[in-house]
Design goal:
Radius of gyration: 22 Å
Number of helices: 16
Shape: globular
Oligomer: single chain
Number of strands: 14
Distance between the termini: 44 Å
Largest sheet: 9 strands, mixed
Structural class: alpha/beta
Helix content: 40-55%
Amino acid sequence: MSLQHYLQLSFTPGLGPITIGRLVQTFGSAERSCSASINDLQSIDGIGSNKARTIHTGLRSSEASAGREIKKAAQLGINLICPDDENYPPLLKHIPDPPAVLWIRGSFEPRDLNAIAIVGSRKCGMYGREQSERFASLLAGAGFTILSGGARGIDSSAHRGALAQTLGRTIAVLGSGLDVPYPAENAPLFDQIANGRGLVISEYPLGSPPIPENFPRRNRIVSGMSRGVLVVEADERSGALITARQCIEDHNRPVFAIPGRVDNPLSAGPHKLLREGAVLTTCLEDILDNLDPLPHDIVAPALTALPVAIESTESDCLDTPVMGLSDRQRAILLHLNIDPVTVDYLIEQTLFPAPIIMQELTFLTLKGLIRRVDGQSFARRTKTSA
């Protein structure tokens, strides 16, 4: 029933993500929030007597709307999830204003926890499209899920770059209802993504048009679900810079920027970010070397969170229990030591294909268990290198 009540809250005029979060925290659940009295509502910070009466009336009328939305989504093959759902993106829960409900086409995979956002201008040049597609393909080949906004230009190039990899995945976050794909010409791209290559997501109800104010709000989801944001081409007023600032200021995650020609107005955004401390990015290693390990309190939903003791023949290897490793990750880790080994060596020893090896090495690096020594060599992280 959590979904029904979160929908009811989200359909109520006067309630946004932050206020919904306060209600649920105060009353203990979405269900109790929906049945709160006017006096109860007035106890919430930011809700006065007039607003409490408006919300109380709205909650009564939004109950039927929530039920209709669930039925309509089911008919269209669209899934709905709320923060109580185990599949709700873990990193998104940690932002100040997580969406109360997500409308989803496609299905999550554990590796989606390791997502990198690629953002930039809709009116990008050839250089921007090339770099967006190039980095998306490189990151997807290393096991990352590519996250972007589904728009023309940089966004579309990022999605296509990820799909160019055989095992590449990508997530498109729309600023409209999922049954109102925008831009319309990207509908086939969204279908391709949703049919086994990733997800198409929105926080807007079915039938919602792509009005301008939706897109800045959408950007916090792009940043909130990602481990970091890469800005390709954007002017200083671009929504991409809004996403980048949210990533740094609100979500405490790294921002990367690709430099451009000094006489190109679309270089102004990335260059401004670089002056403010973004990571200068020219190759894949610039991103991999500047990502923080996964937070210890977040485990990918589909991983079994069981303690796994990793045997080591070296006394100075990290010996703390490792949580939530898959059989493939354990197999790879057993062939790694403090002396660097190449990716080719790991392929020979495990018989896993190269894309799988790169994907799992990325996961182990972000977990803080191994380190990249150079381009294609890896070693177990030691106590002195931790």
